[in-house]
Specification:
It is built from nine helices and 28 strands. The protein has about 375 residues and is of the alpha/beta class. The protein has three domains: about 170 residues, FAD/NAD(P)-binding domain (3-Layer(bba) Sandwich); about 130 residues, FAD/NAD(P)-binding domain, CATH 3.50.50; about 55 residues, Enolase-like, domain 1. Strand 24 and strand 25 form a beta hairpin. Helix 1 runs parallel beside helix 8. The radius of gyration is 22 Å and the shape is globular. Bound molecules: flavin-adenine dinucleotide. Flavin-adenine dinucleotide binds next to helix 1, helix 5 and helix 8.
């Protein structure tokens, strides 16, 4: 009988791995431990729920009980693992000591905010990074009723997707970010401008090139003071200023971690024998991609490794499909800043090709009708992790 496997985290990475291991080994003892409610849901759908009027219950595909039944795993929900002791191969959960045979960390990434939120406004300020967060935000939004004024801080993928989705759901949105154009990490400025114009046309009040200086209560509303002194009024604030890999637990085991995540090799192995990591918390051979296709490939490779067939993971040239229906966007960001962006097309239909000094394609970004080029371009772009 093989060692009991404990997976910490039941997001798409942890659950995906449990599914893959179970498909290869019907008898392995598997325990999934999660700090949240443990429902099986697709995180990318969180930023599409308001347009479709989706209540949180409909985003949960299966309850933790159904997951445990279907996969024949033990599921411990609302349970936070505090520390790992690799010497005794135990996890600490409060006063409990839980032995593991093999351990996988799938602890994801947590929202990070560049400012602290005071108690005075805390009940009106949200992040949405899991189904429980969505449930809380959805509850308050529904309680307000009608068109709620939401100020979104941050114009990256999460901020832009929620902006478009909330507008489509009938709400009013202000988008505040220090960058001059939205999605600045994925899109060169001409394409960012196309997205910005589409969001404006849908009703977004763009405050780009601006930062939040102060956030305070103003009677029933919130008052946002921007760095140029302008004051915006909103009912709720959604913070979308980025995610940081959760590495605190790995730290307690003395694993190598950096800002990019828990360091692993191509086998998703950490430096500590018997401990692996995957998903948003893991930096695999120097890369933390933080999206679904890489974590699915990781789950498949790691399941093979854990069931006796050591398998390194490889990532293809997998573009990200940004869910902003008012302006279709697809991007495959280059791993290094390109020597130049070659822009083709006109109007809202643009292709930006990231090229190296020899004119080879390193990545791309597409808007409007040009998103059709994604397959053709992905064929010639280099894989993320060959
Ligand atoms: P998570 O889902 O964050 O899971 C982490 C798990 O670890 C949770 O169960 C948590 O409770 C648990 N945990 C953490 N610490 C502990 C502890 N100490 N003890 C116990 N449990 C712990 N990607 C795409 O490819 N396409 C998209 O369209 C897309 N859209 C997105 C939209 C939004 C709004 C967001 C936020 C992300 C989106 N992404 C998208 C990214 C993608 O969803 C993530 O890469 C993926 O879901 C990460 O899964 P994960 O399992 O690694 O982490």
């Amino acid at each position: 009988m093989s060692d009991p496997l404990i997976i910490v985290g039941s997001g798409m990475a942890g659950l995906g791995l449990a599914r893959q291991v179970r498909a290869r080994d019907a008898r392995r003892t598997i325990t999934l431990i999660t700090a949240d409610s443990g429902a099986d849901y697709s995180k990318p759908l969180l930023s599409t729920g308001f347009a479709k009027g989706m209540p949180p219950e409909r985003l949960a595909m299966r309850s933790p009980i159904d997951v445990a039944d279907a996969l024949q795993v033990t599921m411990r929900t609302h349970t936070r693992v505090d520390t790992i002791d690799p010497r005794t191969q135990t996890l600490a959960i409060g006063a409990e000591r839980l032995p593991y045979g093999e351990l996988v960390l799938a602890t994801g990434a947590a929202p990070s905010a560049p400012f602290t939120v005071s108690d005075e406004v805390r009940d009106r300020v949200f992040t949405i990074n899991d189904l429980d967060d969505y449930r809380r935000f959805h509850g308050v939004l529904s309680h307000h009723g009608g068109a709620v004024r939401v100020a979104i801080i941050g114009a990256g993928l999460v901020g832009c997707e929620f902006a478009d989705d909330l507008l489509a759901g009938g709400h009013r949105v202000a988008l505040v970010a220090p960058q001059q154009t939205p999605l600045a990490r994925l899109l060169p400025p001409p394409l960012g401008q196309v997205l910005g114009a589409a969001l404006s046309k849908s009703g977004a009040d763009l405050r780009l090139g601006r930062s939040l200086a102060q956030l305070q209560r103003d009677d029933e509303a919130l008052s946002l003071v921007l760095d140029d002194g302008e004051v915006l009024s909103a009912d709720l604030v959604l913070i979308a200023t980025g995610l940081s890999p959760r590495t605190a637990l790995a730290d307690t085991a003395g694993l190598a971690v950096s800002e990019a995540g828990i360091q692993t090799d191509r086998y998703l192995a950490t430096a500590q024998p018997g401990i692996h990591a995957l998903g948003d918390c893991a930096c695999v051979a120097g890369l933390n991609a933080m999206y679904v296709q890489p974590l699915q490939a990781s789950a498949k490779a790691l399941a093979a490794t854990l069931t006796g067939t050591p398998t390194p993971v490889a990532y293809g040239a997998w573009p990200v499909l940004v869910k902003t229906p008012s302006c279709p966007v697809v991007a495959l960001p280059p791993r290094q800043a390109p020597v130049r962006w070659r822009i083709e097309g006109e109007g809202d239909d643009l292709s930006a090709l990231a090229e190296d000094e020899n004119g080879y394609l390193q990545g791309f970004a597409l808007t409007g009708a040009c998103v059709r080029r994604k397959v053709e371009l992905a064929r010639v772009a280099p894989p993320l992790l060959p």
